[in-house]
Amino acid sequence: MMLAFLGMWEIILILVICLIFFGAKKLPELAKGLGKGIREFKKASTDVQGEFQRQWDHDEYEEHRRQLQEEEERERPKKAKAEDKEDSVTVESTSDSESDSKSKA
Fold first, then answer.
1. Domain residues for 45?
2. Which one has a higher pLDDT value, 3 or 66?
3. Number of domains within the chain
């Protein structure tokens, strides 16, 4: 990302300064260490992102589950009333059919 702001001459100047300070023999070791450090940093940042994503997904799941539970609790009294009405209709129709059969007999 930072290299995007540097032009070609700035990069060459940085390489020349590194060459002067560290020498030609030490430069490959420094590059190897820098690459290893960047790789470890990227891995750590990916792990952190993954953990945040898992937590985010878990939070969304919990929120969705809570909403469903609230809806179910709101619907429960309506279902109970509907079942009571259904039971009373069944009882009435049963008593009507019993009285019809008694009157026919």
1. 37-74
2. 66
3. 1
